[in-house]
């Protein structure tokens, strides 16, 4: 019996973990399966042809919000082309009450809700024995949450595919929290897998040259001992050009966990922390347990050393979060100074409490995945659109990592950072450029033109920051065309560098170094003041966390 386990990922660089876990579970039961992976960017025809060419007896699809619509089409087509093929569908997008009523009529024979590792092999065996009634009985039995034996999902075939891509790993399953918008809150168990086996798997992924190893553990730091053992272990990969990603709950980080993170080699670890809202009524309504002040304080401390890449999340559209409350949440979370601030929108996922309670908060949301909020009692659809615009401006600027110095400078001209991004969103929109592709250099020009309209802005200071950000992020040592008329200057590097003792001159330095002369902040008598000075940008020296070129005051080289 030929069984395909089919995953359609959100991006090519992701490799679905679920199908490989199911593959490992089937192999443990001596059942042969074949994993087929695609991405939603593959054409429907390519996916369809590739499945059909395999002539499967059983096709099992792993269904998520990003692939549901595609999978619904594929199931319908496959049932017509190969009626003898048994179709199974599982995953978060079918794990809610009544999903059978949607998936059976389109051609799915079996809908597997919740975890599949225990039941899929039994169902496949029953199908192989042509005992379909038994297969149905397996599904009808209540799911018993038994402790799962960990079997490594990383086969030789997997490891061959993962080079330069994102690998997922799971060292625990379940979450002790009950956030009402999250599917993980619907399961009651939390289990940890043996750390020694997880370490072996990490080593396999590092050796296979994965680019990023992402832990899918829902709240990685809940168990202090478990997290510390893994954080201690990964330090040995400091020189392997790999990044480890963890989702954490920042308010409950212990002193030992903070110390461990602060001692990480630069660039080895990325942290993602969902704060979602700072409104106590909102947090209570969604059962999100979070001491916001402590979370912000811990994240600021973690940012201070510059060794960790930090991503924070905020969700628009939660109960009781009106525009003013959202603005406050944004401004509070913004203070952390994280590298990435994700302004997400509530998704009313099937099977979550927030969806069950949608009427009481007046939710209107999209009927199709990802079921994003359109409006509720607290935020109108027009305001939601405004927030979308701000998200777009935020993504293009702060989250791109390109405008760090300019944004810090511009913040001084706004009562709140929220208005800085709101203003830029309106600026781009008025020029028809919001939601349009904009080349990186052009975006610098747009931000400059926006900033030049701000009352009291100092043109030379603004241009100095724009030029600095441009050189550091684009790694181009020539000033962009739109700064040619500016007073900020890119000086002749040869003339300046050859004078520096022990430095000398090499032809390639022209493409490597840039000496900017403008107005830059300098520490004078304990205060940061903008003065006319020079900064040298070294595009061959890249910060492992921010991926920006290194900068130093020119005086450091010349001992001025
Ligand atoms: S949002 Fe995070 S903390 Fe809350 S239930 Fe889901 S996984 Fe757990």
Features:
560 residues; Rossmann fold; pyruvate-formate lyase- activating enzyme; 3 domains; 6-stranded parallel beta sheet; 22 helices; 38% helix; 19% strand; globular; binds iron/sulfur cluster
Secondary structure topology:
Elements: E1 3-9, H1 18-28, E2 34-39, H2 44-53, E3 58-62, H3 68-81, E4 86-90, H4 99-103, E5 110-112, H5 119-128, H6 132-140, H7 156-161, E6 166-169, E7 172-173, E8 191-192, H8 195-207, E9 212-215, H9 224-234, E10 243-248, H10 255-262, E11 269-276, H11 280-285, H12 292-304, E12 309-316, H13 323-334, E13 340-345, H14 353-356, E14 364-365, E15 373-375, H15 381-396, H16 404-411, H17 417-430, H18 440-452, H19 459-474, E16 489-491, H20 493-497, H21 509-512, E17 513-524, E18 527-542, E19 549-553, H22 554-558
Parallel strand pairs: 1-2, 1-3, 3-4, 4-5, 6-9, 9-10, 10-11, 11-12, 12-13
Antiparallel strand pairs: 7-8, 14-15, 16-17, 17-18, 18-19
Helix pairs in contact: 5-6, 8-9, 9-10, 15-17, 16-19, 18-19
Bound molecules: iron/sulfur cluster.
Residues 175, 177-179, 182, 184-185, 218-219 line the site of iron/sulfur cluster (SF4).
Placed side by side, the strands forming the largest sheet appear as: 6-9-10-11-12-13
- Give the integer mean of the pLDDT values: 94
Which ions, cofactors or small ligands are bound in this entry?
Answer: iron/sulfur cluster
Number of helices: 22
């Amino acid at each position: 019996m030929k069984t395909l386990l089919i995953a359609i990922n959100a991006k090519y660089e992701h490799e679905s973990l679920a199908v490989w876990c199911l593959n490992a579970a089937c192999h443990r039961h001596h059942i042969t399966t074949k994993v087929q992976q695609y991405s939603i960017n593959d054409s429907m025809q390519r996916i369809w042809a590739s499945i059909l060419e395999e002539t499967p007896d059983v096709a099992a699809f792993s269904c998520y919000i990003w692939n549901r619509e595609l999978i619904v089409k594929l199931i319908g087509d496959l049932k017509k082309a190969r009626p003898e093929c048994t179709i199974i569908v599982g995953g978060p997008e079918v794990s809610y009450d009544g999903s059978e009523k949607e998936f059976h009529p389109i051609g799915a024979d079996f809908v597997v809700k919740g975890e599949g590792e225990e039941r899929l092999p039994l169902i496949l065996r029953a199908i192989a024995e042509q005992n379909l009634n038994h297969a149905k009985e397996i599904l009808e039995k209540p799911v018993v949450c038994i402790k799962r034996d960990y079997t490594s999902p990383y086969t030789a075939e997997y490891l061959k595919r993962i080079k330069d891509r994102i690998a997922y790993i799971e060292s625990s399953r379940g979450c002790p929290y009950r956030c009402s918008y999250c599917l993980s809150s619907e399961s009651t168990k939390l289990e940890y897998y043996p750390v020694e086996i997880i370490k072996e798997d990490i080593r396999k992924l590092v050796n296979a040259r994965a680019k990023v190893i992402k832990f899918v553990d829902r709240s990685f730091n809940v168990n202090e001992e478990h997290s510390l053992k893994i954080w201690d272990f990964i330090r040995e990969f400091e020189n392997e050009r790999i990044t480890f990603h963890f989702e954490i709950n920042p308010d409950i980080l212990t002193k030992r966990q903070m110390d461990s993170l602060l001692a990480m080699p630069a660039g080895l670890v990325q942290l993602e922390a969902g704060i979602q809202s700072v409104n106590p009524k909102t947090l209570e309504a969604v059962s999100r347990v979070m001491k916001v002040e402590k979370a912000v304080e811990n994240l600021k401390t973690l940012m201070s050393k510059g060794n960790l890449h930090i991503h924070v999340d905020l969700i628009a559209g939660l109960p009781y979060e009106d525009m003013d409350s959202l603005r406050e949440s944004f401004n509070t979370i913004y203070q952390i100074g994280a590298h990435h601030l994700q302004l997400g929108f509530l998704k009313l996922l099937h099977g979550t409490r927030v969806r069950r309670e949608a009427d009481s908060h007046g939710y209107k949301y999209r009927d199709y995945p990802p079921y994003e909020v359109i409006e509720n009692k607290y935020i109108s659809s027009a305001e939601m659109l405004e927030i979308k615009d701000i998200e777009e401006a935020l993504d293009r600027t702060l989250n791109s990592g390109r405008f760090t110095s300019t944004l810090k400078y511009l913040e001084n001209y706004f009562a709140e950072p929220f208005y800085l991004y709101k203003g830029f969103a309106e600026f781009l929109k008025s020029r028809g450029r919001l939601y349009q592709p904009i080349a990186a250099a052009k975006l610098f020009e747009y931000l400059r033109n926006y900033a030049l309209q701000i009352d009291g802005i100092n043109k030379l200071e603004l241009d100095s920051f724009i030029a600095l950000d441009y050189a550091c992020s684009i790694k181009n040592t020539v000033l962009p065309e739109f700064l040619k008329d500016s007073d900020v200057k890119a000086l002749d590097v040869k003339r300046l560098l050859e004078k520096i003792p022990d430095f000398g001159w090499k032809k390639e330095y022209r493409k490597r170094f840039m000496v900017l002369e403008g107005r830059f902040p300098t520490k004078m008598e304990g205060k940061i003041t903008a003065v006319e000075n020079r900064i040298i940008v070294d595009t061959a020296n890249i910060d492992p966390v921010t991926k920006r070129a290194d900068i130093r005051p020119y005086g450091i080289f010349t001992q001025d």
